[in-house]
Amino acid sequence: MPLFSQQTPASKLHEKIDDTYQHVSRENMGRSPGYRFDTTTYFTRQVNIDANGDNITGDAANEPSIAVDPTNPGRIVIGWRQFDNVSNNFRQAGYGYSDDGGETWTFPGVIDPGVFRSDPVLDFDKNGNFYYNSLTVDNSDNMWCDVYRINDGGFEWDEGTYAQGGDKQWMRIDRTDGLGSDNIYADWNQSYSICNNGSFTRSTDGGESYEDCIPVDKNPYWGTLAVGPDGELYEVGAAYGYNDGVIVDKSNNAKLQGSDIKWDMTTWVLLDGQLSGWTNINPSGLLGQAWIDVDKSDGPGRGYVYVMATVERISFYDPGDVMFARSTDGGLTWDDPIRINDDLSFTNTQWMGTMSVAPDGRIDVVWLDTRNAPLGHSDN
To answer: Which residues fall within 8 angstroms of residue 259, CB to CB, at 6 or more apart?
Structure first.
């Protein structure tokens, strides 16, 4: 078992209602030109705009999550935490969509007007249906999640389905053609959840219903989920009560409808660091979560499992490096970790590292970086 200095316990941060909801009319808010940027290889467009493509001044958004229709890649949905007024931190489930590959965007507003919502996680199934997992909190600090769907090829969300859940949830959908096809898996931080006996749920009916909460070995949190090429399920996260060391749980039978889910394996992944946060870079939150993904290509890396996270180093002090580890045997053993970022200083922070594996097995990693930040700013 690895040893770490305890600085960021699971109970240190959670969503809560501070300010009360105040209705704001978008029509009465100011306007400025929407952000656009073009190069010969890519373009950038602002998503939360009005019908004329203008920025709505005075509102704000963060924590975006994106889903792309695999049957029609021009159809895209993005969800985020919507703040109707920058002077009020009450947040809602904002979203926008594009049907032309991101060239133009429509911002209808929020899914559930006037209801506190946070931690948006979007995903899609192999048929191009979209799912929006949204955390909500009541005035007694009870936390649960609802999952909204678009299953008609359009952009209108349904009324939502209760999906157990809690703070810092994640969701992944099985897009294989195997026995677990279209299964939906979700996990969260059990410290802040309506479920007092577990941190995981599953839907085997396309999101019509979600099963009772069940525990996961070592109770991981601040992490993500991944599905392997044969429907095997992986969960990565910090281990509750183990000083935020990173672990991977694996289930081979979660794909089977009606099965009592068994966690076949729990493995420590040494990243020479721990998940951290609450620094001057992000005083109110994490430096990032742990990410896991699997190569589902037909190439030589098929089935390889990858873990990446922004960590505070332990072999020497560094406030944040993007560290990566690989398993070639289904998560049983892990190669020594490597640092992805090339910054060798001990003062800059590489944070909010995010990873995915493309259909051809290519690994993509992005992060925020303070090394070139202007004076008085913390990211670049």
So the answer is: 253
Residue 268 lies in a domain: yes
pLDDT band (50, 70, 90) for residue 13: low
Dihedral (CA of 296, 185, 332, 237) sign? positive
DSSP secondary structure, 167-208, as one string: TT-EEEE--SSSTTTT-EEEE--TTSBS-SS-SEEEESSTTS
pLDDT for 245: 81
Q: Mind giving me the DSSP string for 228-287?
A: -TTS-EEEEEEETTTTT-EEEEEESSTTSTT------EEEE---SEE--B-SSSSTTSBS
Instruction: Quote the number of domains for the chain.
Output: 1
pLDDT band at 380 (very low <50, low <70, confident <90, very high): low
pLDDT at 23: 93
Q: Is the pLDDT of residue 11 over 60?
A: no
Distance of CA 323 to the CA centre of its chain: 18
Q: Is 379 domain-assigned?
A: no
Domain-embedded: residue 2: no
Rounded-to-integer distance, Cα 347 and Cα 343, Å: 10
CATH number at residue 175: 2.120.10
271 inside domain: yes
CA 182 vs CA 179, 265, 359: distances in Å: 9, 23, 17
Q: Which domain holds residue 57?
A: 11-369
**Bridge partners of residue 16, in order along the sequence:** none
CA 117 to each of CA 82, 92, 152, 283, 284: distance values in angstroms, whole numbers, following the listed order: 9, 5, 24, 21, 17
Residue 111 near residue 119, CB atoms below 8 Å: no
